[in-house]
Structures are given as structure tokens and as C-alpha cells.
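Audit log entry. Action: structure prediction of a protein-small molecule complex. Ligand: pyridoxal-5'-phosphate. The ligand was supplied as SMILES and no pocket hint was given, so placement is left entirely to the predictor. Protonation state taken as written. Sequence taken verbatim from the request; no trimming, no tag removal. Recorded inputs:
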Amino acid sequence: MDAAREAGRDPVSITTIVVTKFHPAALVRDLAGLGVRDFGENRLQDAAPKSAELADLDLVWHFVGQLQSKKARQVREFARVIHSVDRESLADALASDERSIDCFVQVNLTDDPARGGVVPSGLDALVARVLDTSGLRLRGLMVVAPLGEEPRRAFARARAYSEHIRRIAPEAINISMGMSDDFREAILEGATHLRIGTAITGNRPDSG
Ligand SMILES: *Cc1c(COP(=O)(O)O)cnc(C)c1O
């Protein structure tokens, strides 16, 4: 909230997603009782049963992890938003003529392909592909701050990519960035969706 005001931004314009990976469904239920609606998960095998167990609550599930194309349809079944579309084959696998879901294109801000995300030189082609895919509504870009770089500098690059893609995707105005350790810097660079785990939930029970 303070960071939002410092950046001259209305806190209401920022969605906080509570990332509950490795935590039991009971914790999600408690948070929902406190008014949290947006939850994030990064692994299909944990998220699918958790969301099924909590189907009586009207929650918005965000999928934030790396996703294999062959699992794309299963993620579609419970997630309302996918933050990690990082290649054209995944966009193709997520296509549907039935129900549209929201998505973010993930951009890799490092030189390490294992960190996930499309390389910046491939961003325009991926954005164009998502725009051409039925059943996907492009909301914006997603990034994770690199290790060993000042997060604000990295987030400033993400902001520049976001401004760049709006020339071909004028509705893709959102930026999903900022975690427990760097959400203030993310807000200062225009984040609209924060993905916060440990700062809200405490340490994860089993990060293995
Ligand atoms: C786990 C995770 C988060 C939350 O991380 P914290 O440091 O616990 O806030 C955010 N984004 C992604 C993609 C994650 O996997």
C-alpha cells in the first residue's frame, strides 16, 4: 500500500495473488475467509486437487509455473488465468473454441533458458500467436526478477517490453511481477499483479 502511494498509484489498481504452493487447502480456505479471492499455484499435480477440494468457494486460480503442453488442457480446467505462456506450442495447446481464459506471456529477463519465459527477441512473435489463438485473452506480460540483479532495473526492462507490445496488443496492459522480496520495486515499475507467497503465508512447509 505504501509503495503504491509512493508510486502515485491507487492500491485498488493492483491485484495481489497469494501463492499457496506447498500449503494445504485448509490454509487457502482460511485466507478465503479473510476475503482473499486470488490464489496462485505453480504445479498442476498440487493445484488440481486443491482447487477441486475448494470448489464450493468462488476463487480465482492463477497458474504461475512452467507448463508442459501435454498438461495444458488440465490446467485450463481449473485456472482462470495462466501467467506462464512462454512459447508458441503452449499457446496452441491452450487453444479452445469453448471458453476463453486470461493469460500473460512470460518474458525471461535472464540469459538462462531454465528460468522460463520467452527470450525478448521472440516476444513479438509469441504475442502475435496468442492474439491469433481462440480461447486465449492476452492480459499482459509476466516476469520473475533475476537473481543477482537489482530488481528495479530488471522490472524497468519489463515495463519497456510491456509498452512495446501494446503497439500490437493494446489491451494487454497488465504486468505480473513482484514477489515477497521485491514487490515494492515491482509496484514502482508499474506492476498490476503481485504474486506473493511467503510474505503472507509464512515459510512453505515443504519446498522440495
Ligand atoms: C513461488 C512463486 C511466487 C511467490 O514467491 P514468494 O517469494 O514466496 O513470494 C511468485 N511467483 C512464482 C512464479 C512462484 O513460483
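Audit: result stored. Residues 19, 21, 42, 64-65, 144, 179-181, 195-199 surround pyridoxal-5'-phosphate (CB under 6 Å). Residues 2-201 form a domain with the TIM Barrel fold (CATH 3.20.20.10).
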